[in-house]
Amino acid sequence: MRHPEFQYLDLLADVLARGDERIDRTGVGTKALFGAMMRFDLANGTAPILTTKRVFWKTAVKEMLWFLTGDTSLQTLLRENVRIWTDWPLDRYRRESGETISQDDFERRIVSDDSFAQKWGDLGPVYGKQWRRWLGADGREYDQIADVVRMLRENPASRRILFHAWNPPELAAMALPPCHMVYQFHVTSAGRLSCMMFQRSCDLLLGAPFNFVGASALLLMLAQQADLAPGEFIWAGGDVHLYRNHFAQAREQIARTPTPFPKMRLTRRPRSIDDYRIEDFEVADYTPQAAIKADVAV
């Protein structure tokens, strides 16, 4: 059986070979294809943590746990040593203040200065706000994650078990509009939970590997909370692209051969979806090749 990671490597190669080359919002430029899908089986305990380069899986899981809290502060992430959201508020600070500041100095100020963090580290109503505190036209807040847990327990055959983050009135206030924007769930008659995630915009080299890990961690948590077994994680991409300054790195990764996916498991069962911590996740038998560095396009 062909290693499932080849789905990702083949997509990298396909984008390089057939992608439409355009100047994008960031000005960096991309090659892009529209519409792609991958399927990863989690039933045997494995998780799609790529092996052809090192993926810092704890960072991805910490980000997912942050989403689930409903928090939107960069300060919270930085205190967990998660730096993947810094580029956008840093860019805004440099533009609006006119100050030249390094990323390290900016992050130190966010962590140590609460008033500075409140002004410059608020990412706006991004994922967690929409997932946990969607503000309806009726003035009520809607907790989509709590609704998903409830439906998985009470009505697992429903075709309405999903949540999303594309809230048009609040998009302009977000540091970055949601990329992985819809998650839908399916429970088989045998009690296996699968998740399909639709990603409208996918930075294939840097973003997708983290998104695979975060969504897989979410599937494990929801399955545990609903007394279900993990099934498949299905990833669907809309605009799937490689930035021009990622082409060489993509070719380097394509040339590598995958090793077996690692195992991911939960070490305890918390009382609710709100009580998971990074220490609850264990990854075993992860033997990746070297990390591949690339710049984020802002």
Structure report:
- By secondary structure, the chain is of the alpha+beta class.
- The chain folds into two domains: 6-72 and 125-284, Thymidylate synthase/dCMP hydroxymethylase domain (Thymidylate Synthase, Chain A, 2-Layer Sandwich); 73-123, no CATH class.
- Helices cover 35% and strands 22% of the residues.
- It has helices at 6-18, 57-69, 74-79, 87-97, 103-112, 114-120, 127-133, 144-154, 207-225, 247-254; strands at 20-22, 30-41, 134-135, 141-142, 162-164, 180-187, 192-203, 229-243, 263-266, 281-284.
- β3 (134-135) and β4 form a beta hairpin.
- It is globular, with a radius of gyration of 19 Å.
- CATH superfamily membership of the largest domain: Thymidylate synthase/dCMP hydroxymethylase domain
Total beta strands: 10
- Helical residues, percent: 25-40%
Question: Architecture of the largest domain, according to CATH?
Answer: 2-Layer Sandwich
Q: Structural class of the secondary structure composition?
A: alpha+beta
Number of helices: 10
In the residues, how many domains can be counted?
A: 2
